[in-house]
Design brief:
Blueprint lengths: L1 H7 L4 H7 L4 H13 L3 E6 L9 E5 L5 E7 L3 E7 L5 E8 L6 H19 L6 E8 L3 E2 L4 E2 L13 H6 L6 E5 H12 L7 E6 L3 E7 L2 E2 L30 H5 L1 H13 L4 H10 L4 H9 L3 H25 L3 E5 L7 H14 L2 H4 L3 E4 L3 H22 L8
Parallel strand pairs: 3-6, 6-9, 10-13, 13-14
Antiparallel strand pairs: 1-2, 3-4, 4-5, 7-8, 10-11, 11-12
Family: Belongs to the ROK (NagC/XylR) family.
Pfam family, one: ROK
Organism: Azospirillum ramasamyi
Length: 392
């Protein structure tokens, strides 16, 4: 019942009983018990269908709060959420993972403490903490494993760091997996097989398979950034040549923009480079939307590389949807159009017959919501004693 209420966002007594196939009398007994234990509460009424308007049941806000932490290569987001995923407090600020885990998590703890103070919540009221990080994670241990973008992080225990202040369980996963979970929750679990691609400093993929995050045997499923799209391409930081991440992630796009500016191919980009001393994907996106030919060529090239990689994934997995997110996705509609064109051109007709490629819905909060969803889901999983079998 708790799981049904969580994914639905709220149900009437009759709808809840029907969804778990309980008799009316049994459902009423269980609901009364859950209300008495302050696990669920009445949260308003539904529109009338002719009779008295039914009360909506939801997870109780009196249970406590959840903390969602989304660490990016260049940013950190920290939020407190109610059990029904209502965002109570959310702060985002620039950060640099190269400063090291101790420095970054000292700031995370400060941000969490400040959020609790604003909401009037004590540390003991935190029910669970979900953390997303930009690197491969061994999910059972919560430890990063040889993360290419996070030198010095592999031996750092995020769980132990947060346990110094919180008794709540801490769950750690790859940042794109939690974005996929946040997207899954936003869609109320209606899509069962889809992909979320995060394009930023790196490129990663979150896989929702049969309604659950698929992590693989050791947690590395979805590490698509190191799929080769050009054997003659540039050397990637993983040590191989031609990885899509080395050719179409944020740093690669910025380098291509700077090369085009210095080669005299774009006076617009050269003007920004001379003014700021460097170019970003935001600068490239602005130039592309203004009709700059060199910028458009770079965006199309990056989209073609990403689409080439995705075509192979689409042929293998046959998802219903691909959602594109991450900082680079903000470049503009030309990137999305180029990705679509490449995927549809290179994938098998049957794999793309019902495929929809679009942006991540409400991308700004997908990470912290996904981190909190992970904390709720794992706590429920542990509470029921079910086996994960590589998924959750």
């Amino acid at each position: 019942m708790l799981e049904r209420l969580f994914w639905s966002g709220g149900l009437s007594r009759g709808e809840l009983a029907s969804s778990v196939e309980f008799s009316k009398s049994k459902a009423n007994l269980v609901i009364a018990s859950l209300i008495g234990r302050e696990l669920i509460e009445e949260g308003g009424v539904q529109p009338s269908s002719g009779g008295r308007r039914p009360e909506v049941l939801r997870l109780s806000h009196r249970m406590g709060v959840l903390a969602g932490i989304d660490i990016g290569a260049t940013s950190v987001d920290v939020a407190l959420l109610a059990p029904d995923m209502t965002v109570l407090d959310h702060r985002s600020e620039p950060a640099d993972v190269r400063d090291g885990p101790a420095v970054l998590f000292a700031r995370v703890r400060d941000l969490l403490r400040e959020a609790r103070e604003r909401c009037g919540v004590g540390a003991a009221q935190v029910l669970g903490i979900g953390v997303g990080v930009p690197g491969p994670v061994a999910f059972d241990s919560g430890m990063l494993v040889n993360p290419p973008l996070l030198p010095g992080w592999e031996s750092f225990s995020i769980r132990d760091c947060l346990a110094e202040e919180y008794a709540a369980p801490v769950f750690v996963d790859n940042d794109v997996n939690i974005m996929a979970l946040g997207t899954h929750w936003r869609l109320r679990g209606q899509l069962q097989n889809f992909l979320v691609i995060k394009i930023g400093t790196g490129i990663g993929c979150g896989i929702i398979c049969h309604g659950m995050v698929y992590r693989g045997r050791d947690g590395s499923a979805g590490d698509v950034g190191h799929i080769c799209v050009d054997p003659q391409g540039p050397l990637c930081h993983c040590g191989n040549a031609g990885c899509v991440e080395a050719m179409a992630a944020g740093p690669a796009i910025a380098r291509m923009a700077e090369a085009a500016a210095r080669a005299g191919e774009s006076p617009r980009l050269m003007e920004v480079l001379e003014r700021n001393g460097a170019l970003t994907t935001v600068d490239l996106g602005n130039a592309s939307r203004a009709g700059d030919a060199a910028a458009n060529a770079i965006v199309q090239q990056a989209g073609a590389h990403i689409g080439r990689m995705l075509a192979a994934v689409v042929n293998f997995f046959n998802p219903s949807h691909i959602f594109i997110g991450g900082g680079v996705a903000r470049i503009g509609p030309l990137l999305l159009a180029s990705i679509r064109q490449s995927v549809y051109q290179r994938s098998l007709a049957l794999s793309t017959r019902h495929l929809d490629i679009q942006y991540v819905p409400e991308v700004e909060s997908a990470g912290v919501i996904g981190a909190a969803v992970m904390a709720v889901q794992e706590a429920m999983l542990a509470g029921t004693g079910r086996e994960r079998n590589g998924r959750s």
